[in-house]
Amino acid sequence: MLLNKYKERLYWHCRRLMVSHEDADDALQNTFIKIWSNLGNFRGDAELYTWLFRIATNESLTLLRKKNKFVLKHDSDNDTVFEETLVADAYFDGNEIQIKLQKAIKKLPEKQKVVFNLKYYEEMKYEEMAEVLETSVGALKASYHHAVKKIEQALKTDE
C-alpha cells in the first residue's frame, strides 16, 4: 500500500537529486527497503510522508556520495555530460529552459538543492521540510532564499 501510494512522488524526489533514472531507481529501491525494515520503528512523531521523504532524501544523498556524482567543482566537461544525460534521457521531457533550470539547480550546494526541490517541486511547507531535514524553519527559509537567488543569477548569465 505504501509503495503504491508514494512510489511516484518519492521517485521524482530522488530523481531531482540524482538526475539519472537508474540512480533514482536505486535510491528508491534502497528507500523502500529501509522503510520496510524500519516500519515497526515508526513512532508517529512526524507525519508518515515526511518520514518517507526523510528516508528518500538520506538514501539519495548517501548514494550520490558513494558514487562521487555530487561534485562541488563544476567544470564544463561535467556540465556537458550532465546536459547530454538530460537530453538523451527517455524519462526527461524538457525544453531548453528546463535544462537551464536543472543545470542551475545542479550547481547548488547540497542543502540548498534539497530545500529548493522540496519547496519548488513538492510544494512542501517549511514546517514539513523542518521535519524531513531535521532543521529549523528559519534555516530552511534562508537556504531557499539563497538557492532562488543563485538560480536566478545562473539563469540570467545563461541568457
Descriptive overview:
This protein is mostly helical. 75% of the residues lie in helices and 0% in strands. Mean pLDDT is 83; it is low at 69-81.
List the helices and strands and how they pair.
Layout: H1 2-18, H2 21-38, H3 48-67, H4 76-88, H5 96-106, H6 110-120, H7 126-133, H8 137-158
Helix pairs in contact: 1-2, 1-3, 2-3, 3-7, 5-8, 6-8
Order of helices and strands: HHHHHHHH
**Mean of residue pLDDT values:** 83
Rounded radius of gyration (Å): 16 Å
Number of strands: 0
The share of residues in helices is over 70%
Number of domains: 1
CATH topology: Butyryl-CoA Dehydrogenase, subunit A, domain 3
Low-confidence stretches: 69-81
- Please identify, by name, the CATH architecture: Up-down Bundle
* First-last Cα distance: 45 Å
Give the percentage of residues in beta strands. under 5%
CATH class: Mainly Alpha
Main pleated-sheet profile:
none
Provide key terms for this protein.
single chain, 159 residues, mainly alpha, Butyryl-CoA Dehydrogenase, subunit A, domain 3, globular
Would you summarize the structure shown here?
The chain is mainly α and 159 residues long. The protein has helices at residues 2-18, 21-38, 48-67, 76-88, 96-106, 110-120, 126-133, 137-158. It has one domain: Butyryl-CoA Dehydrogenase, subunit A, domain 3, CATH 1.20.140.
